[in-house]
Amino acid sequence: MNFAVIEDSRSQAEVLKALLKSEGHQVEVFSEGLACIEAMKTRSFDFFVVDWTLPDIGGDEVLKHIREKCGWDVPVVFCTARTEEESAADILRLGADDFIPKPIRYMEFMARVQGLLRRRKSARPGPLRIGGIEMDLEGRRVTLAGVEVDLTQREFDLAVVLLRNIGRVLPREELLSSVWVRDNEVDTRTVDTHASRLRKKLGLAGESGLMLTSVYGQGYRLDTVQQG
After folding, report:
1. Hey, what's the torsion of the CAs at 2, 140, 73, 211, to 10 degrees?
2. pTM of the complete model
3. For the chain, which domains are there?
């Protein structure tokens, strides 16, 4: 597993790195949140350990970027000196998988990490196959009639929601809250734009065996259709 440790205390970061490497993991350390965000443009990580208080940006901003870039399957653990119940609830509500109070108890830290890794392994989803479309949820790849299709992250996430709700009318507001979870600056027109792109890219006008229909005043419905 490839870990990213975002921690501005060099001594703390080196201890965490040594612990994780002793279990056979690859570890890259970042002393600032923006450095990690920049690295995510060219490198992929399987697990993030984040200090809540960083010298440049807040841990919540780092978490937002992780979820936007990597989705919700990648574990994120926060290390924080803010141990009061309200702060812990805030961290989990924002989308973290767990938090470790500082000073870190290293045996507990490793036990929590291993627990999340086991949970991730057992929950690893199989491919989603409907009509001529196959979606590899783990690798975030999609093929149409065996040919790989290039989708943006939002297009991929929207396609997953639609394919998991065949025959059901999905209101635009529900799609917006499911796919654009942390982005308050988008509106329902964004859903329409992405739905239009998916219709073309994935043959959702019937070519793939699926038909994406706009339901007036409500939202979208994806149905299976007979191919001639």
Report:
1. 180
2. 0.55
3. 2-122 (3.40.50.2300), 128-224 (1.10.10.10)
Residue type, 121: K
Task: Give, for 111, the enclosing helix (H) or strand (E).
Answer: helix 106-122
Contact between residue 147 and residue 133 where contact means Cβ atoms under 8 Å apart = no
Could you tell me the two tokens for 51? 């200090």
Under 8 Å between Cβ of 62 and 36:
yes
Beta-strand pair 147-149/141-144:
antiparallel
Cα gap 96→92, rounded to integer Å: 5
Taking the C-alpha atoms of residue 121 and residue 219, their distance in angstroms, rounded to an integer, is 35
Q: Which is it for strands 147-149 and 76-80: parallel, antiparallel or unpaired?
A: unpaired
How many other CB atoms sit within 10 Å of the CB of residue 126? 8
Q: Tell me how far apart the alpha carbons of residues 84 and 188 are, in angstroms, rounded to a whole number.
A: 37
Output the tens digit of pLDDT for each of the chain's 228 residues: 889 999 999 999 999 999 999 988 899 999 999 999 998 888 888 899 999 889 999 888 899 888 887 777 789 999 887 766 666 677 788 888 888 888 889 999 999 999 888 877 665 566 788 889 999 887 888 999 989 999 998 899 899 889 888 888 999 988 888 888 656 677 888 999 999 999 999 999 999 999 999 998 889 999 988 765
